[in-house]
Amino acid sequence: MPDCLSKKIDQLSTILAPYGARKLSTNELSKFNDKYVCAWELVTDLEFSNEPIVLQLRYKTLSQFDIPDVFISSPKIDVCQLPHLEKDGKLCVWPDSYIIDNNDMTYAVDLLNDAILMLRKGINGDLNEDFIDEFQNYWIYQCNKIDRLISLCDLTNKNTRLVFGYRTRKFGVIYSDTQKELINWLENQKILPLESDESNSKDKRIRQQQLSKIISIPLIFFNEAWYPSQYPKTARDFFELINQQQEDSESTIELILRSCANMLNVKPIILISFPTPSGMNIIGIQIPKGVSDLASDRFDTRGISRGRFRNIALLDGYRNYIDGKILKNRISQTKTENLIVDRSDDSWLTGREHNKTYKKISEHKVAIVGCGSVGSSVSRLLLQSGIRKMMLWDDDLMKSENSSRHLLGFDSVYKNKALALASRLREEFPNAYIEAFNEDWTEDSKNNQKIAEADIIVSCTAHWNTEQQLIKRQSKDILGAIVFAFVEAHAMAGHVIVNQVDSNAFNSWHITEGKYIGALKYPATYWKVNTRKRIAACAGEFQPYGAIPLTNLHALTARTVIDLIMDRFSNKSFAYSYIGREAELLELGGNWNYKWIAQFGNPGKGDCIIPLIFENSNWEKCDA
Asked: Per DSSP, which regions of 248-345 are E strands?
C-alpha cells in the first residue's frame, strides 16, 4: 500500500473513531460486489423493524475525487421501503455534482450525518413525497427490464383514451396518439416500406401485412402518481386503483377488457400517465393473459397435439363472445408485470418539458432549397430545434470531396443530396415529416407548387436565378418569408437575409443590373484576385473553405428561422452577418471591404455578429 494512501486511511480512522467507527478488514472488503480499498462501519441510534441500523462508508480509491459510498449493512431493507435507498442497501445521499474539499477529510463526518438525518426522516415518513418526486427511480426496481416501450404520445393531453401500438424487433413496442404519426415513425425508421406508386406488389403486400398488426390499447390518465405500496402486483390490484382514483372507472376498465379481448393483442399492455412535481410520467403495465394468448392454444390442433392445451383458458365456455364481468374476473387473478416506457414525444425531445416554444415551432413547415454545405446542416439544426415538417430540394449528387463540409459523409457519395439527406434525417428524427425532391427548385420544376405549403423558405443555393424565381413566386403567390443564406470567399463572412413579401430587401443587398448583376453591394471582404478555384470539368469551379467557419452561418440561419416563427422581428426584413477573424482574413490575402466599412462601419478584429435592419428601402446597422 502506498504511503500516501496509508496516511489517508490513518487520518480517516482518527476522524471517525469518536463516532465508534470500525475499519473493515481486507477479508471483509473482498466480499463486496464492487472493489473497495477501505471502508468503515458504525452503528447508529436508528432502528428499522426493531433492529439497529448499521452504516458503512466505502472508498473505491480514496483518491482526490473519490466521494465515498454509504451503505446500510444491516438490517436488510428492500428498495422502495425507504426513500433514496438503492440496490444492495446503497444510499443516495449527495448528488454526483456535489463538491467536497479533499484537503479537509472531515467531510466524511458531514456525509454520515447527512445520511443519518435522511434515514431518520425517511423512517418517520417525512420523505414519502420523494417517492413521487423521483417516481422513475423507484418504479424501475419493480419492472421487467427486458421489454422496451417507446411512447410518442402527447402527455399534455390528460384524457384517458385509446392509442396505437406496433411491435418492432429493433425498438420494442412503439405507441402513438394517431395511426398517421405511428406510420410516419415506422416509415422513417425503415421498418415499414414507404407507400409509393413505384412500389412493387411485394412491397405493397408487406406494407399491408405490417399495417394490419397495429393495435389499439388504453392510455389511462391518473391525477397523481403511486407510492411503492400501491404498485399493482395483479390485475385485481390495478382495477382497484382505477376504482379508487378514476371518476368513470367502469369506462376505463371496459377499455382494458376490450384491449385484452383483441385477438392480435397477445399480451395486453396498458399505458398509464400522471403528473409529478418533476413533470409528466408514463409507465406500462402488462397483463400476461390475453384472449388470444390462451384461445390460440385452445383451438389450435397442433398445439393440443404438442401438449400445450390449457384447461383454464380465458374463453372457456365461450367462442366468439365473452361477458365483460366474466372476463374481468378471470383476468383479475393474473399477475401483472410493470414496464418502463421511454418518452419520445416532442415535448420531451425538445427540452424535457421545459421548452415552452416547442409547440409553436413544431407547427411550422420549412422548405430548404439547396441541400449543400449550408442547407444540409441548417436542416438538421432546425429539426433539433423542434421543426417537425420540412421539404428539401436539390438535384445535385453527393461527391466524395463534399464530405469535408457537408452533413452527409462518404457513405452517401453518388446519391442525390436531398434524398440522401432526407433518409438520414428521418432516421435521426423519426417524429418529423420530411419530403424530398430530386430537382432544383425552379418555376418549371415538377414539384415547384409544393413550395406554397411552406410557412418559411430557406434558400441556401447562392444561385442568383433560383433566388430571383423564389422572390417572384413569393410576390405572386404571397408565400411566407424567404431566408437567404450564403457565404463570401473562404467563408470569411456569412450573411442571412430575411426577405419579407414585396420588401425588395434581398435585391437591395445586390447589384440588379448591368455587368455585375448578382454581385454584393456591401461585401464585407475584399480580395485582389478571384478566389474561386477551377477543377477539370466543364464550367467546374468551387469556393475553398472548411466546415468550421461554416458553422457560424449554420447557427445564424437556424436562429433566424426561429426568430421569424417566434415573431421577434414583427414583419420587417432584417439580416445577420457573421464577420470572421481579421487575422485569418489577412493570412488568406484579403482585407475588409471599403464598401462594407462605408455602409456599416469597420469590423475591426472581426469575429462578431452584426445585426442589420431594412428600413426606408435601405440597409442599416441595428443598434438594438
From this structure: 269-276, 279-286, 337-343
Query: E strands, 103-160, where?
Result: 143-151
C-alpha 539/C-alpha 167 separation (Å) is 52
Amino acid identity at 99: I
Secondary structure of residue 565 in the 3-state scheme: helix
Length of the chain: 624
Q: 397, 410 in Cβ contact below 8 A?
A: no
Count CB-CB contacts under 10 A for residue 25.
9
- Annotate 179-209 with DSSP letters as a single string: HHHHHHHHHHTTSSPPP-TT--HHHHHHHHH
Measure the CA–CA gap between 170 and 187, rounded to whole angstroms: 14
Q: Which fold, 3-128?
A: Ubiquitin Conjugating Enzyme (3.10.110)
Cell numbers describing residue 456: 418559411
Alpha-carbon span 527 to 591, nearest angstrom: 7
Amino acid residing at 554: H
> What gap in Å lies between CA 426 and CA 390, rounded to an integer?
11
Conformation bin of residue 483: beta by default, left when phi > 0, alpha when psi is -120 to 50: beta
What CATH number should be reported for the domain whose range is 358-621?
A: 3.40.50.720
* Selection from 487, 548, 498, 547 nearest residue 523 by Cα: 487
> Mapping DSSP to helix (H, G, I), strand (E, B) and coil, where does residue 527 land?
strand
Dihedral of alpha carbons 472, 473, 474, 477, sign: positive
Cα–Cα distances in angstroms (integers) from residue 331 to residues 68, 324, 376, 615, in the given order: 48, 10, 53, 71
pTM equals 0.87
Mean pLDDT by 10 residues, the chain (624 residues): 80 93 94 94 96 96 86 95 95 88 88 97 97 94 87 96 95 97 96 78 86 95 96 94 93 89 83 95 88 47 46 56 75 90 95 88 97 96 97 94 87 95 97 97 93 97 94 90 95 95 95 93 90 57 73 96 90 93 94 96 95 93 78
Contacts of 418 (CB under 8 A, 6+ apart): 371, 392, 393, 394, 395, 436, 437, 438
CB under 8 Å to 17, separation ≥6 — which residues?
none
- State the residue for C-alpha cell 439527406: 421
Picking from 243, 233, 260, the residue whose alpha carbon sits closest to that of residue 324 is 260
Distance CA 469, CA 463 (A): 10
Give dist(CA 571, CA 585) in Å, integer. 35
Query: For the chain, which residues make up each domain, given as ranges?
Result: 3-128, 139-346, 358-621
Based on its alpha-carbon atoms, the radius of gyration of the chain, rounded to whole angstroms, reads 32
Please give the Cα distance from 596 to 610 (Å, whole number): 12
Report the distance separating Cα 70 and Cα 162, nearest Å: 45
What span, in angstroms and rounded, lies between the C-alpha atoms of 110 and 112? Answer: 6
Whether 526 contacts 591, CB under 8 Å: yes
